[in-house]
Amino acid sequence: MRIVLVGPPGAGKGTQATLLAAKLGVPHISTGDLFRANISQQTELGKLAKSYMDAGNLVPDEVTIAMAKDRMEQPDAENGFLLDGFPRNVSQAEALDEVLNTESIKLDAVLDLEVPEAEVVKRIAGRRICRNDSAHVFHVEYKPAAKEGVCDVCGGELYQRDDDSEDTVRKRLEVYHTQTEPIIDYYKAQGLVVTISSLGPVEEITKRALEALKREDDDK
User: Where are the domains of the chain?
Assistant: First the structure.
C-alpha cells in the first residue's frame, strides 16, 4: 500500500508510522530521516538542504520533494511506502501527485490521526526528557518517574524541552491548522482520507488503523 500519514503534533505519527510500516511490509519514509540521510551521505540534495539550514532558512519545497521522489524510487519502495511528515502543505501534495502520476502510481489512502487539541497539549507539555540520554522519556501523567525530576533509568535530571512548553505547542498547532490541515480536504476530494481516533493504547491505535486501511483497500 502507498499511504500518507497526517495528524497534528502529538498525535503519535512517528510511533504509528514505524509500527504500521512494519506490519504492512513497506518502508517508513519520514522527512526527518530523509534530511539526515542525505546530509550525512553528502548527496547533492543533502548539501543543498544543509546550505539553507546553515543560513537559518527553510528548505524549499522542491528540495524536499526531490528527496522524497528519490527515496520512493528505491527498490524497497516498489510495492508501497508510508510517508510521514510529507506532504506538509497543499503545494507539496500537488507536487507529490505530479511525481506519482509520472510513474503511473496512485496513493491508496491518507490516514488521518485525529486527536483533540487539549489532549495534544497535555501529551507534549507533560513530556520530560533525561539530560543524560534523550531516549529516556517520561510523562508527568502517563508515564511519571518514580521520583519527580529524576530519570528512573540512570538518575539523570528530567527536564522539559523549550519546544514542549504549552505556548510553543499551541503555536505548533496553529502552524499545523494553517499549513498542513488543508491537505486533508485536498485528499478528501480524491476520496482517499481515512480518519481514526488516536486516543488509547498504542497497540489499540495500530489495530484500529490496520482495520481502517483494510476496509479502504477492500472497498476499491
Answer: 2-218
